[in-house]
Amino acid sequence: MPIPRRRCALFLLMGILGLGLLGRSGAEERPIVHITAKRFEYEPPVVKLKKGVPVTIELTALDRQHGFKVPQLGLRVDAWPGETTRVELIPDKSGTFEFVCDVFCGSGHEDMDGKIIVEE
Question: Model confidence over 49-84: pLDDT tens digits?
């Protein structure tokens, strides 16, 4: 017994919509870590993450361009005032990793740092 075309089209549409909703719900559940860069400091200065748990880092700058570099985690992005820079990260190793500003932002720039602590 053949299945009517309209019924096939309806099932196909429901499948596509269902897959789309599954994809959206997974992205929304990813934790977001907000980091603000401002004159010679990051807020918060310490970020704790879980090994293997994907996160989205949202970086904003309050005063001027800053860099955000975590060499040991292979992460490097820029932050511009009035914009939010998003980067996905899945920490694949545990430990304490220093992040620094690698864009010269004035005298005191060398002290602009923080830590990401990745726990098991």
Answer: 999 999 999 999 999 999 999 999 999 999 999 999
Using alpha carbons, select from 65, 53, 61, 41 the residue that is nearest to residue 115: 41
Residue 116 · residue 42 · CB < 8 Å: no
Tokens 């990401």, residue? 116
CA dihedral 56, 92, 72, 88 (to 10 degrees): -20
Among 87, 55, 59, smallest CA distance to 74 is for 87
Residue 114 CB: number of other CB atoms within 10 A? 20
pTM for this model (two decimals): 0.74
Beta-strand pair 55-61/32-38? parallel
Residue 7 and residue 75: Cα distance in Å, rounded? Answer: 49
Take residue 85 and report the two structure tokens written for it. 């820079």
Report residue 59 as tokens: 């970086």
